[in-house]
From TrEMBL:
Superkingdom assignment: Bacteria
Signal sequence interval, chain numbering: none
The protein, known as: CsbD-like domain-containing protein
Similarity comment text for this entry: Belongs to the UPF0337 (CsbD) family.
Domain CsbD-like: 6-56
Pfam families: CsbD
Organism in which the protein naturally occurs: Belliella baltica (strain DSM 15883 / CIP 108006 / LMG 21964 / BA134)
Length: 67
């Protein structure tokens, strides 16, 4: 099932913000290939224990932000 999601903004900037918020993430965890958004979301959810909705908002919503 594809979520048809698109990563917002600059991916390198997003990776930095994710590492800042979730210190346990590694570069391997944040490996991203276009079209693999749903796999990335699942991997991040499993690694961080964060809610799918929280990660989705941060990664894919224009108004999502790290708090």
């Amino acid at each position: 099932m594809s979520l048809n999601l698109k990563i917002k903004g600059n991916w390198n900037e997003m990776k930095g913000k994710l590492k800042e918020k979730y210190g346990e993430l590694t570069d391997d965890d944040l490996a991203y290939a276009e079209g693999q958004e749903d796999q990335l979301l699942g991997k991040l959810q499993k690694k961080t224990g964060a809610a799918k909705e929280e990660l989705s908002k941060f990664l894919f919503d224009k108004d999502g932000d790290v708090k």
